[in-house]
Amino acid sequence: MKYMGSKNRIAKEILPIILKDRSEKQWYIEPFCGGCNMIDKVNDSKCIANDINEYLIEMFKKLQSGWIPPREISREMYHQIRKNNEKYFKWLVGWAGFNCSYGGDWFKGYAGKTQTKQGIRDYQDEAFRNVMKQVENLLKITFMNLEYDKINYPNNSIIYCDPPYENTTKYLQNNGFKHDKFWEWVREMTKAGHKVFVSEYNAPEDFKCIWEKQVKSSLSANGKIGGNKISTEKLFIYDGESKWEYKKQTKKKQKKG
User: What is the pLDDT of residues 138-182, one digit of tens each?
Assistant: First the structure.
């Protein structure tokens, strides 16, 4: 599925790293599943896909039940759904919001048939065909709509996080995501026995980058606006007691002293 910030292009490189030592009983969980372009490539039923966007999750659940989405939504209907989404089924709102918008970016502009240098491009038809190819790989997944820290994670889970990237144009407007709280949660989950992997451009000092690659991205790092750019995608794990943790403990001791 076309989705802003999708990891589809790098999934084949980072999934083997994430799943390297996975046992048959281990659950694979994505608290920020987005377009499910990673989890749809995990070939078993011990998979949980969660996202805070209820319309997205309802859309995926409906697709699991056999729903065939519309191949085309008119510009007028698109804007009606955007302005009055409470009047429509949540799964239809989810479909319109992502698959009928440019770049899979939630209601950020109607995408229909457009004249290009190569001829007429039908963005909605492309989205329809892409999702229909994906559906079979979604059937095994358990979908949830919770805050990432409210999920009941089975013991020793493998958790892959693709959270809102800090300081990117994708998330600058009405963000609300608390990055410091998230990184502390990753530390706690790792110490509790889970294997937690995080995709980001940057991480705190006590996190280790275990993979990186330059990719063309529609996200604009550091808040810079302007089309596609080259960004360095990275995969991090918590590195335990480190220079950052030492500094933190030192400050605590100094305050007590």
Answer: 999 999 999 999 999 999 999 999 999 987 655 434 358 999 999
Q: How many CB atoms lie within 10 A of CB 66?
A: 8
Q: Residue 114 to residues 107, 117, 122, 232: CA-CA distances in angstroms?
A: 17, 10, 6, 31
| For the chain, domain boundaries | 53-147, 153-257
Cβ 209 vs Cβ 202: under 8 Å: no
Radius of gyration of the chain (CA): 20
Single out the residue of 61, 51, 59 nearest to residue 164, CA to CA. Answer: 51
The rounded percent of the chain whose pLDDT value lies above 90 is: 75
pLDDT of residue 3: 84
- Quick: pLDDT tens for 212-255: 999 876 554 444 444 557 889 999 999 986 555 556 666 665 66
Across-strand partners of 149? none
Helices (H), the chain: 11-18, 54-64, 75-83, 90-99, 123-134, 179-191, 243-256
Tokens of 20: 């390297």
Q: Where does the chain show beta strands of DSSP type E?
A: 28-30, 47-50, 113-116, 119-122, 142-144, 158-161, 195-200, 207-217, 229-238
Beta pairing partners, 252: none
CB atoms closer than 10 angstroms to residue 224: 10
